[in-house]
Amino acid sequence: MDNVEGIKKDIREYSGIELAYLGDAVWELEVRNYFIKYGYSILKLNKLVKSNVNAKAQSLFFKELFDELDEEEKNIAKRAKNSNIKTFPKSCTVMEYKEATAFEAVIGALYLRNKKEMISKILKKFIKGDRNGTI
Predict the structure, then answer these.
(1) What is the Cα–Cα distance from 46 to 109, expressed in whole angstroms?
(2) Do 125 and 131 contact (CB within 8 A), yes or no?
(3) Of 48, 70, 112, 125, which residue is least crowded by CB atoms under 10 Å?
(4) What is the rounded CA–CA span in Å between residue 21 and residue 26?
(5) pLDDT, tens digit, 9 for 90 and up, residues 30-53
(6) Within 10 Å of residue 39's Cβ, how many Cβ atoms?
(7) Separation between Cα atoms, residue 102 and residue 36, nearest integer Å
(8) Could you tell me which of 26, 40, 25 has the C-alpha nearest to residue 116?
(9) Is the backbone of residue 39 left (phi > 0), alpha (psi -120 to 50) or beta?
(10) Which of the residues are catalytic?
């Protein structure tokens, strides 16, 4: 394995798909971390997490979130949404999947930019149901 210490990529150098790949993992971890605190059974935990970590849910989150993003985040979202995605799950529409990819890319970018407080605000808005709060 190559030694990559000290190498830091600018956020604009990541593809939308790379950011979505990271954002998918970050979002799922945040959602799992939120729900596990309540002592639910694994079955219940899995159901709650799956209901918030899927393309349909993330597409809705993205549509509500988009206007609150700054210009750089909007550009990241647009780049990810317009990525050349070749396969799509049958559980959602192509547009829902593209919007979910955009949502995940924004989460990935926020994580890389060390804006974890904004990820927490997004979690609060969509998972805790504080739809009136702004990001």
Answers:
(1) 26
(2) yes
(3) 70
(4) 9
(5) 999 999 999 999 999 999 999 999
(6) 8
(7) 26
(8) 26
(9) left
(10) 24
